[in-house]
Specification:
The chain is of the alpha/beta class and 225 residues long. It contains eight helices and five strands, in the order βαββαββαααααα. The chain is globular, with a radius of gyration of 27 Å. The chain has a five-stranded parallel beta sheet with strand order 1-4-2-5-3.
Length: 225
């Protein structure tokens, strides 16, 4: 992990992993041979990276999304820089926001997509909200299968779908498919809301004004004494 001290140490997932001995810090300018999760990557991480991850590991950049332009990415060197595909953050700072994963989520997602499920679960288990990452983005193994039976959990299982791909190109295609499905779901939801609004504008037959055919009619001025 390259740490640029942008975040509150009490809320920083990378620093917590370091305190637990689950991650080590790298010096700026040092070369890393494994996969580096970086916004400067040109390929998305995929199962094709499994050998690289297994041999040389994964590194992330610990910085603030608000200060991403301050990071000297030219000094963070790796032949295997990777982007993450579409996933939703579940950390307390950016919950529900696409792409805005923190360090532990980025590491866990990379390990999961490349087939190192237990590594991902070990990292997330150190955080009280860690199980939410799987509930929102897809379950990974029998150890958390009970979470997946919750009726409130999104059944899209993004992570599992990415894991079925064979290359970065296939993951990119799967990502576009997922985004298209989400867009269609959103449009359908809008159509449903529009139909519900139209239903509310229909006159309630129980409140219909009686007609002359039923033998009654509203009083006229001549009827009033």
């Amino acid at each position: 992990m390259w740490d640029f001290d942008h975040c509150d140490p009490r809320r920083c997932s990378g620093k917590k992993l370091a305190r637990l001995g689950l991650i080590t810090e790298l010096r700026v300018g040092s070369r890393f041979r494994g996969v580096v999760v970086s916004p400067k990557g040109t390929l998305v991480v995929s199962p094709a990276d499994k050998e690289i991850v297994g041999r040389d590991g994964v590194a992330v950049v610990e910085c603030s999304w608000a200060r991403i332009d301050d990071v000297p990415f030219s000094k963070i060197s790796s032949p295997h820089e990777r982007l993450l595909p579409y996933l939703l953050a579940t950390n307390p700072t950016n919950y529900g926001k696409p792409w805005r994963l923190n360090c532990v989520e980025a590491l866990a997602a990379t390990f999961y997509i490349t087939g190192f499920d237990q590594h991902a679960e070990t990292l997330l288990s150190s955080f009280g909200w860690g199980h939410s990452f799987w509930k929102v983005n897809g379950c990974s193994s029998f150890t958390i299968i009970l979470l997946c039976t919750d009726s409130n959990i999104d059944g899209s299982s993004y992570l599992k779908r990415y894991q079925t791909c064979a290359s970065a190109e296939e993951v990119a295609v799967m990502q576009e498919t997922i985004i298209a499905e989400l867009q269609e779901s959103y449009e359908e939801s809008r159509r449903e809301r529009a139909r519900s609004t139209e239903d509310l504008l229909v006159r309630n037959p129980n409140h219909a004004i009686p007609s002359d055919d039923d033998g009654s009619s509203p009083a006229s001025e001549g009827d009033v004494e």
